[in-house]
Amino acid sequence: MKGGRVFGVLLRNEWFKARKRIVLWMALGFYALVTFMDKAYSFFERSEGFRLPDIWASVFGDDSATLFLFAAITLVLLTATEFSWRTARQNVIDGLSKSQWFWGKTLLLPIVGLAFVAAHVLIPGVLALIRTDMGAAASSLVPLSVFQATGGLVLAFLSVGAFAFFLSLAIRKTGAALAVWFLWLGAIEFGMLPLLVQRILPDYSERLEYLPWRNVFPLLEFRNYDAPTFERIAAAAEAAGRSAPEAVDLGSHVIMATLWTVLFIGGAFIWFRRRDL
Q1: Which residue from 166, 157, 174 is spatially nearest to 270, judged by alpha carbons?
Q2: Cα dist from 25 to 20, 112, 148, 204, whole Å
Q3: What's the rounded mean pLDDT across residues 104-118?
Q4: Where does 132-253 show beta strands of DSSP type E?
Q5: Which of 27, 120, 136, 236 would bridge 74 by S-S if both were Cys, CB 3.0 to 4.6 A apart?
Q6: CA distance 103 to 8
Q7: How many beta carbons lie within 10 A of that of residue 239, not counting itself?
Q8: DSSP-derived secondary structure letter, 78
Q9: Closest CA to 66 of 106, 34, 37
Q10: How far apart are CA 68 and CA 216, in angstroms?
Q11: What is the pTM (predicted TM-score) of this model?
């Protein structure tokens, strides 16, 4: 019971501080606007396929990675500034233990992640619902695969967002933490590291697909959750003379995303405990 009360206090504390920060609402509002504008043309033009449940295949995909950029930047701005503004030290002085402060701060991961995922899924979903003829719908408007894909999107953010969280607590400078995050996920993970591995250890090149950023892309594809969508894409590829996409083992990517999340949060906790505020 005591642990539950502490958790509730920490959650309320983080939500209170986060909702007072204009950076959260600016980033979330801008992302919501970008998402709306991306779907607005198809909505107002009454494009074929812009209805439920057809819309879901375009909601989830590689483009979902843009969500991570907005959400991770927001997370770093909410976390790293706790040190430059000395609010982390003040919270401990006011009665929180260092461990309580840390675990409270980890709650920003689901808070920020769920906020951006909700905007990403609900905005096109509501627009498509407006254009949907309920009487003509031949299947469920929101099938189980939508909830599975949403869960995959949340898990994907937790794994790459946990890396940003780790850097925020390790570096404690907003600009430097963001620079390292972008450097690793861009230049290193998709640039220098694959070249080095392919040249020095070519037999291990396939394992690069389980690096933090690369690992999440299979979790973003709707076809990996929805069998009819996968079959439709495979049939279209064969009709066009292209090879059909291969089925993906989502289980291994789910496990790796979970492990990366635990590793980064655990590493952040160990590093944080060893340093002064």
Answers
A1: 166
A2: 9, 11, 27, 43
A3: 94
A4: none
A5: 27
A6: 12
A7: 8
A8: H
A9: 34
A10: 11
A11: 0.91
The C-alpha atoms of residue 229 and residue 52 are separated, in whole angstroms, by 13
pLDDT digits (tens, 9 = 90+) for 230-265: 888 888 777 777 777 777 889 999 999 999 999 999
Indicate if the alpha-carbon torsion angle 34, 123, 236, 154 is positive or negative: positive
Question: Quick check: 183 and 78 in contact, CB under 8 A?
Answer: no
Helix (H) or strand (E) holding 269: helix 250-274
Chain-centre distance for alpha carbon 212: 12
**What whole-number distance in Å separates Cα of residue 21 and Cα of residue 11?**
16
**CB contact set of 89 (below 8 Å; sequence gap of 6+):** 277
Residue 44 confidence (pLDDT) above 70: yes
What is the C-alpha separation between 12 and 5, in angstroms, rounded?
11
If phi over 0 gives left and psi between -120 and 50 gives alpha, with beta otherwise, what is residue 61? left
- Which among 158, 164, 157, 129 has a CA at the least distance from the CA of 51? 129
Cβ pair 69, 232 in contact under 8 A:
no
Of 94, 113, 217, 87, the closest CA to residue 165 belongs to: 113
Which tokens go with 194?
A: 């694959």
